Amino acid sequence: MAMAPSSRLGPVAQVSLHNGFRVCSLRRRRHVKTYAAKSEGMITKLARVFSEKAKSDYERVFGAMDKTRERLSVADELFTYWQLDEYEEALEELEDVLLTADFGPKTAARVCDSLRVEIKAGKVSDGSEVKALLKENIRQILTAPAGEGGSDNPLSFPDDAEVGTVLVVGVNGAGKTTTIGKLAHRLTSQGVAVALAAGDTYRAAATEQLVEWGKRTDSPVVVKRGEKEKPPALLYRALEETLAAHKNGEGTDGYADVLVCDTSGRLHTNYDLMEELGKCQSSMQKVMPGSPHETLLVLDGTTGLNMLNQAKEFASYVNLTGLILTKLDGTSRGGAVVSVVDEVGVPVRFVGVGEKLEDLQSFDADSFVDAILPAGI
């Protein structure tokens, strides 16, 4: 099967559009490479759509960070009338301010140490320069894991993958299943065929919910077969069936370019269930080496530094590749997000900004930093 060159969001997505129409049959796929220069690639198109969506929803993210921005307003006041010979005292106060805004101790210390180095080196001389440097330091923390510009293309699949695979994990109540539905909508609305796997086999309502999302997004759903089928076995079968359907071409039952897998919600302190997640990853790797290509952790944006504890535990059991923030409202704690990215080294990929199907946007670090910092910084 011809594959167009790709860096993120994988070739299976890119070859599914040709001059604005889906190109999914094996016969027609052979023509994609010839006419690639004439049409906008799926990766480019999805990157643009996610980017435009992020800009249009900036005000909603801004409103969600009212609490964090209010607490960080002290930092603006702190450096407005700042004197160079008072920098050490000011940095100590800034560290306290960051802690009250839900930055973790390590990240707060790191930010202040970075400012201290720049001040001692004579690279800043007044409060406005310190505030600008503070903003840039936080932005760099958020962009470092993904690299500059990485947020424009929030999913990454290998060039040689026939089907892109996504495993979604998180604690109970974080919003995994709803997020999967929104992600399926974002992909299918741009011409990417999606299949869903109901890997949350412990909660009957979760399967019913995912089946409903499948109907709303026109995505086939693989569900539990028999009472004894465990999540690792279900995901093994789901990937095996999706690969077989993909090889048979569009029109085959279960055909998909991307398989998105749900998992059971679990407390990060439940070691038996956490070990099961590792088995889920391993079972998918047996079918397709290197899968799942993306393992995304869904985090409730209102839980503060508990997000950091969750992310550390999940990262110790599975290979996390990205984070999804949900439930952003006026009580969301933006400082904790910075600390999760800093300490776990995993980028934020998506942000949920509401309850509608369309309310899932790619994460934009610049907009997020503007949202958590007061206007004076």
UniProtKB/TrEMBL annotation:
Q: Where is the SRP54-type proteins GTP-binding domain?
A: 347-360
One of the record's GO molecular function terms: GTP binding
Q: Per its UniProt record, what Pfam families does this chain match?
A: SRP54, SRP54_N
Give the PROSITE patterns listed for this entry: SRP54 (PS00300)
Q: How does it sit in the membrane?
A: Peripheral membrane protein
Does the keyword field hold Membrane?
yes
Where does the record say this protein resides?
Membrane
Q: Name one GO cellular component term.
A: membrane
Q: Which UniProt keywords apply?
A: GTP-binding, Membrane, Nucleotide-binding, Receptor
Question: A Gene Ontology biological process annotation?
Answer: SRP-dependent cotranslational protein targeting to membrane
In the record, the note on similarity to other proteins reads: Belongs to the GTP-binding SRP family.
Which NCBIfam families does UniProt cross-reference here?
ftsY
Task: Please give the name of this protein.
Answer: SRP54-type proteins GTP-binding domain-containing protein
Q: Which organism is it from?
A: Pycnococcus provasolii
